[in-house]
Amino acid sequence: MSAIPMITIDGPTASGKGTIAHRVAQALGWAVLDSGALYRLAALAVIDGGIDPGDQAAVARAAQGLDVRFDADRIWMGGADVAARIREERVGNLASKIAAYPALRQALLERQRAFRRPPGLVADGRDMGTVVFADAPLKIFLVADVEARAQRRCKQLKEKGFSANLADLLQDMRERDARDRNRAHAPLVAAPDARTIDSSNLSVEATVKQVLDLWSSLGTRT
């Protein structure tokens, strides 16, 4: 087991994983890994490269060759800031589809594990606690009603200047949930030792407090 402390936060799309992970990492003075961004970056590379998204080997090669750098709120790929582009729904939907490819997941595995450095790491995604960091001392499984998640995503998109339709988002989210939960390789599931938090009716601050309280309860592992 690595001596570097860490917390994993897994859960379905728009459950608030990213926001909570960043707030918890900020409170602890740790780094943060948005694993979903890596899959979205792979999807964007597929789109921009004109790659057949059904060609699993080609998609995996694109992921292996990603020229990516994370810098606060900016995400650089090939010299351009693509932080806004990877949040587009078409990129997210393609990321969900190609995330089922074992070759792609393997291509990104070591890249994700390399983020675990002192003083600590908060990693959010769908298989952080079950596959990528299975030895993490604290694993959170963050859930929320699909309707609440669709409303959150709709609000986020509109605030960023994107057009959004709640009914379409709700349908896309249900389809994405089904893909994530039913894929054969690294499906979305709570780790046996994960602590489940339902954020449907919780504020960001209340959710962050629950995670920090759980971490504090581990005592000397901080």
TrEMBL record:
The gene is cmk. Keywords: ATP-binding, Cytoplasm, Kinase, Nucleotide-binding, Transferase. ATP binds at G11, P12, T13, A14, S15, G16, K17, G18, T19. It is an enzyme of class 2 (transferase). One of its GO terms (cellular component) is cytosol. Residues 7-214 form the Cytidylate kinase domain. It catalyses: dCMP + ATP = dCDP + ADP; CMP + ATP = CDP + ADP. The lineage of its organism: Bacteria, Pseudomonadati, Pseudomonadota, Betaproteobacteria, Burkholderiales. The keyword Nucleotide-binding applies. This is Cytidylate kinase. Belongs to the cytidylate kinase family. Type 1 subfamily. HAMAP family: Cytidyl_kinase_type1. GO terms for molecular function: ATP binding; CMP kinase activity; dCMP kinase activity.
